[in-house]
Amino acid sequence: MNMEKRKPSKRKLKVEMQQQEIEVRIRNFNEVPFGYSEEQAIEEAKRCLQCKKPKCVEGCPVDVDIPAFIKLIEDGKFDKAAKKIKEKNSLPAVCGRVCPQEDQCEKVCILGRKKEFEPVAIGRLERFAADWEAEHGTVKVPNTPPPTGKKVAVVGSGPAGLTCAFDLVKMGHQITLFESLHKAGGVLVYGIPEFRLPKKIVQREVDYIRSLGVNLRVNSLIGKLYTIDELKGKYDAIFLGTGAGLPMFLGIPGENYNGVYSANEFLTRSNLMKAYLFPEWDTPIKRGKKVAVVGGGNVAMDSARTALRLGADEVYLVYRRSEKEMPARIEEIERAKEEGIKFMILSNPVEAIGEDGWVKALKCIKMELGEPDESGRRRPIPIPGSEFKFDIDLFIVAIGTRPNPLISQTTPALKTTKWGTIVVQEDVPKTSLDRVYAGGDIVTGAATVILAMGAGKEAAKAIDEYLKKK
Ligand code: FAD
Ligand code: SF4
User: Fold this and answer.
1) Which residue minimizes the CA distance to atom 18 of ligand 1?
2) How far is CA 228 from the centre of its chain?
3) Per-residue b/e over 352-376, b at no fewer than 16 CB within 10 Å?
4) Would the CB of 51 count as within 6 Å of ligand 2?
5) What pLDDT does 372 receive?
6) Is the CB–ligand 2 distance for residue 56 below 6 Å?
7) Is 121 in the pocket of ligand 2 (CB under 6 A)?
8) pLDDT for residue 140
9) Å from CA of 408 to ligand 2 middle
């Protein structure tokens, strides 16, 4: 490539991705954006400056060689672009769709620093390359090195476990991946809805990892089927990537009424248990007409937009801070608003009111923002006497999750924090137990897909180093 002759395009804004019309998409579960065509991808790739010191790579938690894969797209070498990404990222079609690029690679993209210029649409290009590779059947199973004879148990098949298993199997180790649910993928299958991440894409990535030789055992709850001590007797090393899937509640009166769900249950019923495909699937789920969702993260947005697609007429998103402090991805906030979700900011529920055992109304109090708290965001303070109430028939609580305590309860020597997350060493992701490593939400608390993947990668490296020394 002759770098001097190459002139990046002068286009200021990202090439738009076409998407379903709003009035259509709010009543179906199909994916909202359609993705780039080949021509659109090339046009967007031409915007990249091919920086000598690309900041975007520093912003990527798994170190993808971003300018290199973008250049391959620009040159029409789409399968090579996908392979370049996969050198570092085992789930590119997933990351291209759900990673918060606006806070990572795209945030630091040098093009985006120029006045009036948007950063390169790195996420959209990543998604394009991964989808192109899958659609054109060019996915090839790489050669793995000769077996090392070492056995590793990976517990939990979310992004952390899948990545750890993927890296370790490529190093020649024998991997068994234990998953308590009947499907692999973690939050990618039970939490994030079909309209944001089609499940066939997750399945495609899981199948790929299995094709490398990973032995997936679903319906296998560790802590019940085997304890960690029992696993230690069978495997040379263990990775715990069990996530933070236990929902938290507000602790307000009325939360036990019928028609009050944790976001976790609501989304699991809809996504994993396919309630959205009624009548082909008959998983029961309450379809509310007037719905309130409390929370301001991706989980709250997903719950609100799912409730809408299940037939709600009005969906209120109740959040105690202002929109600026919402932790959800900007893109998801915008889509939720476009779809008609009503944002009730600076408000907090204080009571769920019921009748004949079912929730009928929500009482909230208005909030104002004080000084920043330990999270760095301004602390919400209730305004005395500002209570108000409105009718609802479905209430979804999406205020956060924490780890399920099963493994720590059955493994007393495993050191955990007061929040139930597993403690690992600072230099290596090793737990207080010999030969047991951990990463992802189970260590950090609820975070992001790419951070969980980065943790799985780091643990695989540490486990490999340990096994080599053994
Ligand atoms: P998980 O994905 O939670 O996977 C853990 C797996 O371990 C699960 O499959 C669980 O069943 C299994 N498991 C648990 N205990 C056991 C046991 N004892 N034995 C065997 N298996 C066990 N992040 C983003 O980056 N972008 C987004 O847009 C985004 N949206 C989200 C939307 C929702 C609704 C939710 C809930 C989260 C979202 N996140 C998003 C966060 C992201 O999905 C998580 O941070 C990420 O999945 C964590 O990965 P993990 O592998 O650590 O855990
Ligand atoms: Fe391209 Fe932006 Fe990365 Fe520079 S920082 S190489 S412009 S994506």
Assistant:
1) 222
2) 26
3) bbbeeeebbbbbbbbbebeeeeeee
4) yes
5) 87
6) yes
7) no
8) 66
9) 43
Residue among 183, 25, 202, 15 at smallest CA distance from 97? 202
**What is the position in ligand 1's atom list of the atom closest to the CA of 159?**
51
| CA 263 to ligand 1: nearest atom | 34
**CB of residue 67 inside a 6 A radius of ligand 2:** yes
Distance CA 95, CA 152 (A): 26
CB atoms within 10 A of CB 398: 29
How much is the pLDDT for 294? 98
470's tokens:
């053994």
pLDDT beneath 70: ranges in the chain = 1-4, 138-141
CB 397 within 8 A of CB 362: no
Pocket of ligand 2 contains residue 50 by CB under 6 Å? yes
Residue type for position 421:
T
Rounded to the nearest integer, the mean pLDDT of the chain is: 94
Q: Which ligand has its closest atom nearest to the C-alpha of 126?
A: 2
> 116: which 2 tokens?
């009036």
Give the CB-side neighbour count of residue 372, counting CA atoms within 13 A: 5
Indicate if the alpha-carbon torsion angle 100, 102, 108, 112 is positive or negative. positive
> Residue 47 Cα, ligand 1 centroid: separation in angstroms?
34
Q: Which residues, at least 6 apart from 63, have a Cβ–Cβ distance to it below 8 Å? A: 57, 88
